[in-house]
Amino acid sequence: MDASIHPGPYSRELLVLQGDHRSAHIWDGELMSQTLRARRVDDLWDFLRHRDLHERVVHRLQDMGFYRIIEIGRIQVDWALITVLIERWRPETHTFHLPIGEATITLQNVEVLYGLPVDGMPVSLPIAMRFLSRDAYLDILQQLTGFRPQDETASSGASRLTLSPIRQHLELLHPDITYDTEELLDELPYYSWGVAVLGYMYRQMCRASMGTQRDVCGFMPLLQVWAWERFLQFQPTRPQLPPTVAPLFLPLARSAIYVVYILYVVQAIGLHIVYLMGLQMQDYVGDPADALQDYSRRFVELVARTLQ
What we know:
- This is Serine/threonine-protein phosphatase 7 long form homolog.
- By secondary structure, this protein is mainly α.
- It is 47% helix and 4% strand.
- The chain is built from 13 helices and five strands.
- It has helices at 22-27, 44-49, 55-64, 67-72, 79-87, 107-114, 134-145, 164-171, 182-185, 193-208, 220-230, 253-282, 288-307; strands at 37-38, 89-90, 95-98, 101-103, 215-216.
- The strands form two sheets. Strands 2-3-4 form a three-stranded antiparallel β-sheet.
- A hairpin with a 4-residue loop joins strand 2 (89-90) and strand 3.
- The longest helix has 30 residues, at 253-282.
- The protein starts with 21 loop residues before the first helix and ends with a helix.
């Protein structure tokens, strides 16, 4: 007689949330073909592609450490990988339960992978702000940005604001804006923003790992780069660096961008080069192998110049 397979965990003394965990639903035949998606469409990179950030906005982002994310660039999120990891995430311990043991993302990973600051004052919401009304939030917004949306659609519930009108206002910042609110933002560099990013991602992974959630939010590129660095079999193939390209060091996410970008370059110009090779080799007088070697060298040089 076949022995019954136990899905685990064998003991629920610690993993008390197993009954509604995502893995339990998968064991029952649910969510078999469902891949998590972003809760909201990420159009940040499309937005930045067509606009230049105001120099004072760049200055503040640099102070907080967030501008490194923009400098590193976009990473195409592998949602299948993200889904598999979250299926292994345990809210009780804030760790991934894997066949080889437990693992988790640490503050050191946040600092090394993306260069976000993890030292400084904690980013926390004062208790009093949790009970502020919508008008109180509008007053704070006006104090910080000089903008107060008048449209009723700017509100969401009794104490929330939608970001669309605020974003539209920030898009139109005049080059001659003043430093009237400078003293209100001077303390931004002294906060541990990397801790806030990691804490929020922990919370969202806990939410996504329970029940039958279909979406997840948080800084998922951090999770993906962490997985690439910890599990080498998930890592994209790293091409040989051309002699003219210096090795990429911290933050380590830069190396991931290099891999993705060179693959994009190959896809974008590779077919064109191959086409030219074919035309040239039709009329090549000497050995066709010499033509192939010559065009291979030119292709590598073209990629190297493109990446510079």
